[in-house]
Amino acid sequence: MAAVQDGPIEPEPENEIKTEASNEFPGNPGDASGGVPPTAPVAAVATEKPAAAATDSTERQTLLAVLQFLKKSKLFESEEILRREAGLLNETGDSQGAAPGGAGLGGGGGAEPESGDASSVLSRVAGAVAVAQSANATPAPAKVAPVVTGGEDQPDVNVVLAAYSQQGDPVLYPVYYSGLKRFIDSVLDCHRAELSQVFYPLFVHMYLELVYNQYEKEAKAFFDKFHGDQECYYKDDLRILSGLTKSEHMKGNETLLDFRTSKFVLRISRDSYQLLKRHLQERQNNQIWNIIQEHLYIDIFDGMPRSKGQIDSMSGSLAGEAKREANKAKVFYGLLKEPEIEVPLDDEDEEAENEEGKPKKKKPKKDSTGSKSKKQDPNAPQQSRIPLPELKDSDKLDKIMNMKEATKRVRLGPESLPSICFYTFLNAYQGLTAVDFTDDSSLVAGGFADSTVRVWSVTPKKLRGVKTAGDLSLIDKDSDDVLERIMDEKTASESKNLYGHSGPVYGISFSPDRNYLLSCSEDATVRLWSLQTFTCLVGYKGHNYPVWDTQFSPYGYYFISGGHDRVARLWATDHYQPLRMFSGHLADVTCTRFHPNSNYVATGSADRTIRLWDVLNGNCVRIFTGHKGPIHCLAFSPNGKFLASGATDGRVLLWDIGHGLMIGELKGHTDTVYALKFSRDGEILASGSMDNTVRLWDTVKAFDDIETDDFTAATGHITLPENSQELLLGSYMTKSTPVIHLHFTRRNLLLGAGAYNP
Amino acid sequence: MADREERKFAEVQRDSVKLMAESTGVELSDDIAAMLAEDVCYRLREAAQNSSQFMRHAKRRKLTVEDFNRALRWSNVEAVCGYGSQDALPFRPLKEGELYFVEDREINLVELALATNIPKGCAETMVRVQVSYLDGKGNVEPQGAVPTAVQSLTDDLLKYYQQVTRAILGEDQQLMKVALQDLQTNSKIAALLPYFVHVVSGVKSVSHDLEQLSRLLHMVKSLVQNPFLYLGSYIKSLVSSVMYCILEPLAASINPLNDHWTLRDYGAMLLSHIFWAHGDLVGGLYHQILLSLQKVLSDPVRPLCSHYGAVVGLHALGWKAVERVLFPHLSAYWSNLQAVLDDDSVSNAQVKADGHKVYGAILVAVEKLLKMKAQSWSVPVEGSVAVRERSFPGLSPPQEPVSEPGFGIASHLLQGTAGVPAEEPVPVQLPVMYRELYAFFGDSLAVRFSTGPGIKPRASRSAPSQPPDSKKEGVGPDTTRKMPQLTSSLTISPRQDSSPKNEPGLPAAQNSSAAPSRFQRSSSSSSSLQRSKPPPSKAAQRSAGPPREVFQKSRFPLPPVAAPFSFLIAGRQTGRRCQGRRFQTSFPQLHPPNPSAQPPRGYAHKLPVIGRMGKPVKRWVCSQYSLHLPL
């Protein structure tokens, strides 16, 4: 199946190697695994061909399997037809008849008994294959087991595991492994780092294979012997692995299934790859070679091998790095055009003179909006790419307010850092789990572990509910201040409690117009609350497991949620079913964020990857790997170009969305980063963490450093500047309070929030 | 490596599985039990891993029972009920047999329902804003500090605070008693804790006023003993205040008429009590305190009263502390002390008197050291036994092993845990130590050490069976003249080396009664304040006349005291070395009072066991005062 990955690459070099290899083959007869028939060099070449060069060994095998099935079912006619159509006129050997479908697949890369026939078939079909090859450029992991349900949520476990049934002598596994280790230690330095990437997935698969085949002792010995060699950032997974010692346990284990259903992706330069391949062929190390072919996806690139630092910065996710193709899609990261707003003159500030004020007002207004609206950002999506709700009058008013505030905004920079206000939740013994501020910073809401949601007004304006229906009917609906009149003064209070959930509230989000509040909870629901009546309006049921995060689109109406079921769902407030389901993460979706243009959503996951999804078509357009722990917060820069992510590893990573690259690593926090926020102009990134600090980072510099660089976007290789300490503008202690939310007011005052729990 | 792997996980033994199966009437073969056990382990690990994500999303660092139950629920397993309590669940061994269990006390619902001290539900959750950093620079308030206004105080709380502080620091003794008593038992003052701690930290500003200092220390004691308060990080502040009183050359001590010695003794006792009762909180401080004591001791410039404080402080921290710090230091210190003691000039009289105090304190400490050493030496330590023994005496208070880092009894068990530094100084052999000490103290040491029939290991061993008797008989005749010293040692030391349980009671009792009475515990009810003096007087014995006058007034009536003391030692020894079980069973009735340290029986029932949850405290308290405060 490595062949599949090699698809787009010219087969030429492969053939060369093969011939070289074949010359040496006669030298080592009798491989322990007994896979390769140690016959004539010609045969060896032939066997190798389907494995390495041939395009779609999977497809071929599927075909063979189907033929076999037809034959078994005595559907000779169909078999004949299919055979003819496929060009497989030659009868394939009966030896295959014995091999059940699963084993046939599993043995794909290896030299199973069928190899003889397969090779002969192949040599005949070479032409046809070459054609099919080009069509098969997308190597989807789902194809690992075409018989299986594909890359679905819960693949048929037994089938998935079945691939492990074929195994060599368990005693030799440590030998193989250490043999490979010795080899990799001996290669040139420049290749060593790259090839070392193979260790971890190999280790895991060998271990699992041993466990699956019930060599418990051997498995344990194998684990003990080699687990120390693995990169430290895999230690969480290793811990899970080490607990798994029985094949019966494998069935329910999600981590394991992730490993099986998805190929571990490695990026290796062509030179290094060929070194490895040649070595394995020389040693006839089929066991390892099989694993590499079946369970790894090796993304081969041309050029310099990467350094250890480069590799380390990108690896660490559950399933290896992202494939390069995964980040090739075009992303419209630009902002949408701001709607032209007629500025109601009387609304303008009273401070200006009446006569002069009007014309003056209008102009700056138009400029500020106009600058954005006049020329469309080439990177922005079509205005109507995603249908967005129309602006209501109140929205327009709010926009005007926003603009007014923006003129008074403090310009931040390394020289002028923001002031920080901290909102401390006192007596929150029930456990504060989520916080959100409204955009205008007038309300703050907290989600608590006791299932409640509480909303506070942080301005002198109290929270009031709407009057009862009876009272409302008495109101003069034509009066100008009807909106004021409908409010029930008697209900005014500083805070309101919202009851409805039946589990801890893990995520909370205000709608941009401040009329609604979303909350998601362990009870697997997302609830929409009205901030007019302070009641629950809708409970969105769709997730089957706890929902970890939810957020409103910046334009309202849509919202996104993600949870333990590994799926992120896009909803519209007036639909009770999700509009989109974004599935692909291999573990819980832990945080979800809307892109400022509302056309994309980013999700962070416990599989240590971040994915960017296109709301329009539901495609995954970016996969970012590099975090070494579950990701717990995300933030888009206000211009939509960049993404920041924070994880349990205490690091904040910066990503360039357009190029799909990691562009910065901000080290400093000593505990999980739970809050990230860009300042209103994007010059400063604030991060808040469990370690009771808020840190400010100079993003202008971080982005500049990269942008001036002529980075090789094509290869996707990044060398992170070692200057993350220079980017740190300040580190601010709270008073023994973990920071779980950060917010910049419209004037760039930084608000933090957290619960003080002595 | 393999070992490490294995130790990472909880393992469920095959036997446990079999037991459980039996309890439901199923017989399992070994094979099946083994497989089940392994599977159970795996499932446990899985559940633990799953539960961690609930913790992460709740943005906590501590995994709670609830997290675990959630994980179970989502994997379609029934939740485990009964572990959601906030209080620690003490894990106890059964006296006989290898049985361990989580204590599950019966709760008297009626009592609970009618209790008047139900904590009011915690205050309303609220949001308070504060400008923390202006322009990213100046801190409006010092960073990292605990918020001052954690709770906005209600009016009643404020009133209570004012009344109580006024009463404690005021003139009226009776009022002070009542206030202290209430401080010790009031369940609703958690919100005021920071304020009280702040008041206590005022010791530094009243170092001229002994009376105030001792009142503040009383306040510390009440706070420490209040079972409803979680002292948390405040305990550090309390400890530092206490240390201040013990170690600093207080302004008050300039006047020789001021009895600052008592204050220091009291402080030391308080210190040991804190370590006993809140070892889990202060465990990390143990080493630090040892260091600061050592520093004072090794600083010849410090006045003798500071040295005295250091010595009693060390003594209070247990004989291990004495061995580790004082003993190695003794030879160096000795020469200085000797110089002071040998100077007979008139101008030196006061200093010399002080010197005798120090001398006496050292002697007491060293004596205890020798005795404990003798015991530990002669009795091979048996871990589990000792643990059992420990856990027994103080049943009521939750007993964290860490809680008494320095205490003789269990300290050897605790090595490596937080409180006790893992490296033990190379143990000095007892004979060597004795010889060395003898060189300093001469006969006075010898006499003391060999005193009393009960001291020798053998004797002690036999003693346990009938402590009360041995108490009476053994003591009487020979110890008479040493009495004073003994009493002194009692006052300071008993709590640390012997089983801690009764100590807390002591302080409580003393505390509740007026200051003067607090020390009278043993026989010498007469002059509690002076009890610090005895050691010197003993020293005096050795060096004959002069010092005696100095301490004259502090003398106790000798005879009555003597008897209990020697018994004490015996009891202690027994407690220490004999198997806990035997010990325990032999004195079931004794257990409220500490068998070892409780000489006067009359007192015994009065000295409640105090722990954070200790019921006895309440009982004792309530019987004495019924205080209804508007909270």
Write a brief caption for the model:
The complex is a heterodimer of chains A (758) and B (631). Chain A has 758 residues and is an alpha+beta fold.
Protein model, in words:
The complex is a heterodimer of chains A (758) and B (631). Chain A is 33% helix and 24% strand. With 758 residues, chain A is of the alpha+beta class. Chain A has a 4-stranded antiparallel β-sheet, with no helix packed on it. In chain A, strands 10-11-12-13 form a 4-stranded antiparallel β-sheet, with no helix packed on it. In chain A, helix 10 (173-186) runs antiparallel to helix 11 (189-196). The longest helix of chain A has 21 residues, at 115-135. Helices cover 57% and strands 2% of the residues of chain B. A two-stranded antiparallel sheet of chain B has the order 1-2. Chain B is globular, with a radius of gyration of 26 Å. At the A-B interface, helix 13, helix 14, strand 3, strand 5 and strand 29 of A face helix 1, helix 3, helix 4 and strand 3 of B. Strand 3 of chain A pairs antiparallel with strand 3 (126-133) of chain B. Chain A: Residues 1-58, 91-118, 343-395 are annotated as: Disordered.
Q: Using only CA atoms, what is the Rg of chain B?
A: 26 Å
Q: Strand pairing plus helix content of chain A: what structural class?
A: alpha+beta
| Main beta-sheet strand count, sense and barrel state of chain A | 4 strands, antiparallel
Mean pLDDT of chain A: 76
Model regions low in confidence, pLDDT < 50 over at least 5 residues of chain B:
1-6, 140-150, 381-425, 450-631
Number of helices of chain A: 25
Beta strand count of chain B: 3
The N- to C-terminal Cα distance of chain A equals 57 Å
Q: In DSSP terms, counting alpha (H) and pi (I) runs of 4 or more, how many helices of chain B?
A: 31
Question: So what's the overall shape of chain B?
Answer: globular
Structural class of chain B: mainly alpha
Oligomeric status: heterodimer
Major β-sheet annotation of chain B: 2 strands, antiparallel
Q: Considering DSSP H and I runs of 4 or more, what fraction of the residues of chain A is helical?
A: 25-40%
The strand count of chain A comes to 31
Tell me the greatest interface: A-B, 76 and 48 residues
Strand order of the largest sheet of chain A: 4-5-6-9
Percent range for β-strand residues of chain A: 15-25%
**What is the C-alpha radius of gyration of chain A, as a whole number of Å?**
30 Å
